[in-house]
Specification:
With 179 residues, this protein is an alpha/beta fold. The chain has four helices and nine strands, in the order βαβαβββαββββα. It has helices at residues 12-29, 45-52, 105-116, 174-177; strands spanning 5-10, 36-41, 60-69, 75-83, 93-101, 121-129, 142-146, 152-153, 169-172. The chain has a six-stranded mixed β-sheet with strand order 4-3-2-5-6-7, with helices on both faces. Strands 1-9-8 form a three-stranded antiparallel β-sheet. α1 packs across α2. The two termini are 22 Å apart. The model has no long low-confidence stretch (mean pLDDT 94). Bound molecules: inosinic acid (IMP) and magnesium ion. Inosinic acid (IMP) binds next to β3, β5 and α3.
């Protein structure tokens, strides 16, 4: 385990099994369709790549980079589009793939934006859901794990761009960000 981890919250095995389970459920729902799978950079990349490899329906891949957080662990309260989609979402069935829903600010805003651009449908799949922290009225259509209110890292998630490549989800030691 990484020295900055308090403990491991979700192991590689738990992640692998649950991501597969959720992906197969979503695959059934989109039978006969060709969804546009939108990954929210950068936190979702590992979840995204594991998720899409379980899909048998044809998919098109696209990405957006947005920020609601600055460099630290406190939300700045403003959605900033740093990289927009390459594809037009008009008439498309969109699946947004997110790493974690915290306050809900990012996804509440994104869902409205993509609907306004004329998407036929917009569904959200998230790896983690911090229910206790919710401030905006948004729920994922698919959620792999409900987690308690802890700052987590690994499997794509970062703190100040560190720890994304850890293969598990760990709880970051408070001493790292409460300096
Ligand atoms: P929201 O807009 O408040 O829902 O924030 C969602 C974004 O905040 C996520 O996409 C993450 O980038 C970031 N975030 C929230 N909680 C954590 C955490 O525990 N670890 C790492 N990033 C987090
Ligand atoms: Mg993120």
């Amino acid at each position: 385990m990484h020295k900055d981890c308090e403990r491991i919250m979700l192991t590689e095995e738990q992640l692998r099994a649950r991501v597969k389970e959720v992906a197969l459920e979503i695959d059934k729902l989109y039978e006969g369709k060709r969804p546009l799978v939108v990954g929210i950079l950068k936190g979702s990349i590992i979840f995204y790549s594991d998720f899409i490899r379980h899909l048998t329906v044809p998919v098109e891949l696209d990405f957006m980079a947005v920020s609601s957080y600055g460099s630290g662990a406190v939300s700045s309260g403003k959605l900033n589009i740093k990289k927009d989609l390459d594809r037009d979402v008009k008439g498309r069935d969109v699946i947004i793939v997110e790493d974690i829903i915290d306050s809900g600010f990012t996804l509440a805003n994104l869902k409205v934006l993509l609907s306004e651009r004329g998407a036929a449908s917009v569904r959200i799949v998230t790896l983690l859901n911090k229910l206790e922290r919710r401030e905006y009225d948004i729920e994922p259509d698919f959620n792999c794990f409900d987690i308690e209110n802890e700052f987590v890292i690994g499997y794509g998630l970062d703190y100040n761009e560190h720890y994304r490549s850890l293969p598990y989800i760990g709880i970051l030691k408070r001493s790292v960000y409460e300096k």
